[in-house]
Amino acid sequence: MTALNASQVKALMRWYVDAGVDETVSETPTNWFEVTRKLAEARAAAKAETTPPSKSPAPRKFSRAPAKPADIGLPMGAEEAIKDARGLAASASTVAKLGEAIVGFGGCPLKKTATNTCFIDGNPDAKILLIGEGPGAEEDRQGKPFVGPSGVLLDKMLASIDLNRERVLISNTVFWRPPGNRTPTTSEAAMCMPFVERLIELVTPDVLIVLGGAAAKVLLNEAQGIGRLRGRWFDYGSETREKPIPAMALFHPAYLLRSPAQKKEAWGDLLMLRERLET
User: What does pTM read for this prediction?
Assistant: First the structure.
């Protein structure tokens, strides 16, 4: 292989930065395909242990007990960061204090490259909670979730069923923008998950809406794509709740902007949501 000269190396590094690769997070490469496979297998095993057999399909209550970090290939230091996040989240008695805990949390590497922390937007007292994937460029600039083009579409989607940001609370599975708007890694989502779970506990929503495939896989314990998860109701359960929360997955507004043909399916899902809210 021909050695690269200085200008070629500089051009290559610029290409990596433009693609979102702007930080080395481990001394050894990580096979994220293998990590995702092991995580899906661990969740499937946990679901098989906690879900009784049934002859007909029905909403399921998912165990929120995650696989051990060593079993899903988390990078060095991630296990300690998750432990710290759990402690900070558990000590937060209100949504406002949870936000302060997230701002003070330094365990997630996404925080190093982000401009602002994006925690919530909307009404903290609302009983409809929407959780997406992660902040984009405009969200990172303003420090609020869903304020860019996808946020504009989300507002229109909510308005179509007589909802607005005064009647819902909006958050994400990670609170800092992934470089290049890439999908959050398994470890990044795991570091933020204690805060997400605590937010759900504090809000105690009547309905949980999960926006996009990445968020659905994390919160619904499912390995299927969003195309198979949408249009159905699930039961979101946790170790601290006596009763599960009705949950459904919607296409992410950013996906609908790229694939407008799917808006028909999204409209059907919104009608399902409106029907549930009216009962």
Answer: 0.74
